[in-house]
Amino acid sequence: MIDEVLERYEAVIGLEVHTHLRTNSKLFSPAPVRYGDAPNHDVHPIDLGMPGVLPVLNERVVDLAIRLGLATNSTVHTYSIFARKNYFYPDLPKGYQISQYEEPVVSDGWLDIDVAGETGELVRKRIGITRAHLEEDAGKSIHDTAVAGSHDSQLDYNRAGVPLLEIVSEPDLRSAAEAGAYLRVLRQMLRDLQVSEADMEKGQFRCDANVSIRPRGESEFGTRTELKNINSFRFVEEAIDAEIERQAELIDAGGAVQQATMAYDPGTGRTRVLRLKEDANDYRYFPDPDLIPLSIAPEQIEAVRATLPELAPARQARFEQEHGLSAGEAQQLVELRSLADLFESTLAVYSNARQLANWLLRDVLQTIKERECDLEETRLTPEALGGLLAMVDAGRVTARSARGLIPELVERGGDPEVLVRERDLEAVSDTGALEGIVDEVIAANAAIADKIRGGDEKPLNALMGQVMKKTQGKADPSEVRAILASRLRGA
Amino acid sequence: MSKISPEEVEYTARLARLSLSEEETAAMARDLDKILDYVAALQSLDTTGIEPTSHPIPVPTPLRADEAAEPLDPALALSNAPQTDGTAFVVPKVIGTGEES
Amino acid sequence: MDGLLDTVAGQRDALDQGDVSSRDLVQRSLDRARDTEGLGLVVGTRSEVALQEADAADARRRAGDGRGALDGVPVLIKDNMVQLGEPAQCASRILERFVSPYDGAMAERLGAAGAVIVGRTNMDEFAMGSSTENSIHGAAHNPWDRTRACGGSSGGAAGAVAASVVGAALGSDTGGSIRQPASFCGVTGIKPTYGRVSRWGLVAFASSLDQIGPFAHTARDCALILEAIAGHDRRDSTSLPEPSPSLASGLTGDVSGLVVGLPREYFELEGADPAVIASVREAVAELERAGAKVREVSLPHTKYGIAAYYLLATAEASSNLARYDGVRYGRRVPSDDLDSMYRNTRSEGFGAEVKRRIVLGTYVLSAGYYDAYYRKAQQVRTLLRRDFDEAFSECDVIATPTSPETAFVLGEKSSDPLKMYLSDVYTVTAPLAGIPGISLPCGDVGGLPVGLQLLGPPLGEATILRVADAYQRLTDHHDRRPGATS
Q1: Among A53, A74, B56, C176, which one is most buried in terms of CB atoms within 10 A?
Q2: ipTM confidence
Q3: Nearest to A96 among C81, C322, C374 (CB)
């Protein structure tokens, strides 16, 4: 059990994320960046490593790297170098990858995550970002499973040359949950910055995890293993826990962890060694002589800084401070940018922030999840939402009735005033009329009424249900309960 | 004292995906030894504080506008393939998750 | 071939006067290529297309729509330069049957000028060599003495001009591969400033050293070709931002007041042929008589040039040649598993010299050796550049022999790689410093041509061409033609 293991050992986790940058063309070639095209339909001679071709840097990636660097409070280097990482693999068309080695474009930053502490409340933790650098993606190798007994692989170079930003965290993470939180925050940031779509299914956000453990209290790092290419958040956390457990078992049994590349098998829930790292790869890095070092003017960095949107962490803090939301509420709201946008625009016409947050997180979110639609594409306007909530606050419509209108407002829009009138949802607040209905129900259920008078509270709900039904849900439940109680016991 | 042994030659050749016969390895070790011996003269040259030159003539960082160009006709892309199934380049099966040394 | 039609200038005159058509010229080149087959200079021709292009040039000329000095003039490119739809083999087995799916800049620009590329010339495999003996097409034989080498790696191009196959041909120079064969074959050849000519479509050997340049009989013809191919290219990140320089119009013939520097280290070299040195000194004296001033300069780090060159060039080459793996193009040795396929393909596909340099280059970059070798060599590069900067503050051009010897006998050096490397001593420093250099014929020793090398400061092509042209107006070494024709 992971909890038991973590009592005795401390886990040390670092994450490397490779994210596809949002560009029209590739990092060093003008070929289009597209997904789902037939193999080798998006290639240029440069992407095939043809004799005589040369790389030229895509200017957009510089902006995107700067954005990510600034958002993570990193140093954006005004001088960085492209280096060749030399190794042989068929998906690598030149026999080397153009990357950055000793002098990356971004380094020494951080981002904050919120994770549940021991008592369940959220605790904020700062995770260091060692570096982020530009590099090109490799092509894809497809194993021909359609052809029985095939000994061949097929190579598709559509992805070869697509621009990547490799973001490396400090080994500051201490649990799978922290790792998951870091990835979520990073992914959201990349999307909000429009640096990457970060769609994991399209392979635009890939994660490798470096995991080691050490006995609690020790300061020396243990030997680490590398979990490669995990492409879902759930699997990342499972895999990390599985690897921590594996290493603990090994050490408990007197063995030693060996440096290795690991794979996670979701079926068995265990990690296994793919390849031992006895021979560290000799990549023979050297500065790429075909490319000029990247010089970034300080003015360009400032110009980009001015275009950055307010990012989720800052927005969350502002919601907490300005609107009195709890950390949990604020965090949930900012997770979906459009939801947070609706929150703010509705506040212009309706002032009860906590009430609004509640309705957004519960009813609106549920509706759009059920309908699997995009909030931006819905017809729910800030005026409609604010108006509806104002009606609830004034007791003109019950909360329950109002809830029932949300799906309609989302799908078809409309004015809540009109809808309430049309559907005859006006709350029954006339006390006299309510008392009359309560009396009718009591009279029709004499036996039950007697039981309640005798002290049995339980059947009260059944009577309540009948009253609500008679009022078509338009009465305020607490008022109904009060009248029933006074009628059954008071009078 | 030889500067490069046949074992080192073999290891280096493997890094470069070259197979050398025993004679070739021995001959190459001899040739490279002579060359490295000659090159050793560089060690006696004091280069403290001298910046290495990666690019002989400095130019400002050239950048390309992020506009997608028409890709290569796939038939042309495959036209030189030693083995192809008509849509992709075919090689003997690739084992592993990528990045072999 | 009629002597007047040997040169680009002569061909231009004849075309303009209607004495010949472009088709005639191209046909003569094709015939001449066939006649000199035994010399191993030309490795492939594109006759049908070339004749069509010639016809088009003729039509343009008749319509008064000519494209300039090179319109309809036949030329050759080196086997390491790609042209759409044409083979580019780099004299290597590993690029057998490779046909390029794109056009190199040099082919595009020659085409835009109307020049007709007739075919490709022989070279050392992947430009690695100084003799054009390391070639699957067989060695190139020097038209002056067919038992001797043309020099390398652009031996076929130099020889083809010498043998009057064409008036101009393109070569590439990394450590001297244009200038040294120019010197051995008695023709003029220029390596421009690094970045002057686009490398887009030049199969890379050593990326920070490679440059394309022309061979011709005269500096004037070289100027015409260089103007056509030089200038910024967005597809080459190392391309100089400047547009193509105007070169032909600066050939005034005037060298009065020009200061020619003679680097003492080059003239004191042990083992250099004294007759070669004497010939070069006489050439410098000629310039002096024409009004130039001569002074001694020093390039103190010259002796480290070869070492630095062979470390850097092989390191870059080992990486540049990793793409030849039998996966996407070229020759593949069918094998059961991937690793065997790589090893078999590359081992059978590359010749011995290429393998040697790949192993050396891989070694130089490998863990533990990078600082001692690669980084050190880059520092030497800085020192060599400073030497030249210092020297050019005292003179306008530097004059040296191109090679310490004349054309050696085929096979004489092939058993000793180091010996072969040492013959590059005068030519490796220019690419390391990125500066331009030209070699032109200045005499002969025992009937074999001697080359005078002029080096200029960065972007100094106009100056060295002017000096070369001035020299050629006063002398006639460049007018001599070899006897051997096959």
Answers
A1: C176
A2: 0.96
A3: C322
